[in-house]
Amino acid sequence: MKRLHLLSAILLLGCVAAWAQSGGELRFCLRSEPKTFNPLLVEDDASETVRYLTGGVLLRVNRLTLKAQPELASEWKVSEGGKRIRFKLREGLKYSDGTPFSAADVAYTMEQLMDPALHSSTGDAFRSGEGKVSTQVISANVVEISFPAPVANLVNLFDTVAILSAKSPQKEMAALGPFYVAEHKAGSYLLLKRNPYYWKKDAAGKQLPYLDAIRLDIEQNPEIEAMRYKRGEVHLINTVTPAIFEKLSADNASVRDAGASTDTEQLWFNQVPSAPIPAYKLAWFTSMNFRRAVSEAINRADLARIVFRGHAVPAIGIISPSNKFWFNSNLKPHPYDTANALHRLQQEGFRLDGETLRDKSGNAVEFSIVTNAGNRARESMATMIQQDLKKIGIKVNVVTLDFNSLLERMTQSYNYEACILGFQNVELDPNSQMAVWLSSADNHQWNPRQKSPATAWEAEVDKLMKAQAASGDEHKRKQYWDRVQQIAWEQEPFIYLINKDALVAIAPTVKNTEPSVFRPQTFWNVEMLALAH
Amino acid sequence: MKSVRYIAMAVLLVTALTVLFAHYLAPSGYEQQFRELPQAGPSAHHPLGTDELGRDRWARLLYGMRVSLTLAPLAALFTTMLAGLVGGLAGYFGGWTERCFKFLIDFFLSVPWLFLLITVRAALPLNISPQASVTVTFALLGLLGWAASARVICSGAKDLMKSEFVWMARASGFSGMKLVRLHLLPNLRGALLAQFWISIPVFIIAEANLGALGLGVAEPLPSLGSLLRELQDAVTLRPEPWRLLPLAVLIVVISAFQVLLNKQEVRA
User: Fold this and answer.
1) pLDDT given for residue B141 in this prediction
2) I want to staple A494 with a disulfide (CB 3.0 to 4.6 A). Which of A64, A95, A266, B99 is the partner?
């Protein structure tokens, strides 16, 4: 009798498991309307989500192991130090409308992607030097792409290239990914349906994805999104704020802290020589000892504990420790040490006059920190830094500005003294930071668009950045990058404050989830997700 | 009804004294961060608990009341005076003058002030103190908030100019400032006072909204508006009734003003 019960139980569990593995409509929210359905023109988060769910790529970076895995290409080979890559494609694959997939589609996609008239930021990542990118169709399932110069991180870049169909009448709407766009009501929702021709199968030979459909509701307000999650109307929240995380957690809703993300929040001083700020202030801001003193006077642990309610870690530098391969593990967190901060300032001729810090000319040390209005976390960080710096006699005025005014000051008039903003580092490869660390770059925020490097250390960073971009050897690139991180740690043009944790909410009914700190945190393995009924 | 008025007067008196002696009543400075106690509940040291940065809520409420209940009435007074001047002149003279002033009123009502306010804030120097920043904010609100009130005053003044007693006064030789002083202003007092009292909560709420756009009170200075902003997070708001006190204070103070206003209106 006992055996019978055990057998029944096993059978029942088997049925439940099989039931949970297929069907159902997964629902979650997009923060805004996707700006495009053309996967080559994606720049915003919402379009990126649609591209991830519908686009078929030659290879996919596993968000847990960070290794490239075969997708449409069953294998690939990089040659000539990163100037050439050959893909062997899977055979017999079809787009969502039944159009067959072949090497000609890869050639067509690369041609479109590299067309300068398209202005594709995805394509820009492949532009390694002067000259044309050529794609040669070797056979129906072999294709070779050649670049004029070595492309750093070449393999992983193909994670973002969704292959278009050269022949499908549906053009970019024909999908090779697990889902295709079936309905779109502007401003309201998108309905993605299972791609009937999707090629991937699970270990048991069952065709993926398990889900029938995904409904993406457009909801700008994270508070409303959280309420809908609590009511069971949505199954996932990809990015939860610490306050909502705490509230959902207190209400026993299913939330997870996936650990420190690659996103950074940083403070920097304006070092632009032509900026309309007094010369004596510019002298403070260009002094390494001044910047490091300010850095040492900031209690980063308090920022992480109070502003982010413990869901952040004090930042060390450019690369988050969660980016294990590229992080320079020799770097240690900047200490919180007000005594040492004052010592550094004294070395530069500053002195404490009562409770006011003065420079060698007697000017009271006072500056403003601007940040974007409406971002409570940044406002709170600025307020805490205001109190921290008061301890070493520095007066800080916190100013919040609407984002456009802030951008205008940062990029046009340079009329600001210090700023707090953050970077969302989507790419794991540091090559994506060329636009920040080259002294000639637009996003070299503390002193952008320099004709020649203003300092010796910026000249060295320029050299290292160019060397790593031109190298196909990962270990050499790592060495270059370790040195860049070391210089940035010492000079602190950006005073990195914290790395936020990746906070996600996943309903218990969603099975097979493996949240990652990298985007898209909750649904990176979407074809394996299933709903328990 | 008399007792209600006494209560209202007592409320306003207590509020005024509280605001005046905030620095004696507050257990700590409004900017002081007790970092080991963020989001704490009420205790002997922190009667209303602490905010998300560990700042004493009671101290912030006291100083916030001082800022808002001083500057909002001043801005309301300024805007009411402007409304009285423009609306009164339009109603008194009528004809082309009225049409010109009404055009000005319509123009002020149709301009997207929000963007103008953002532009003005963006143009302000960054190193001004929070006190100067909040003064500028309320001054701007006062300067820009008069148009709707002016329309009400204009309508009232026009009606008065057609009334029998004004005709009689004019027939008796009253004109100019004498007519305005003796007949128009006393009869418009109710409308002007109403516009004044209505403007106060409107300006406090407007300052809170502007805060979200970067034009409000700069940290760490509190205002009723900035304290009300904390109530925006409907989901994250925990069942902590003491956090609603800034809202309760605003409602009670404005209600007390309204009770006294009704009495004065009856007299008027």
Assistant:
1) 87
2) A266
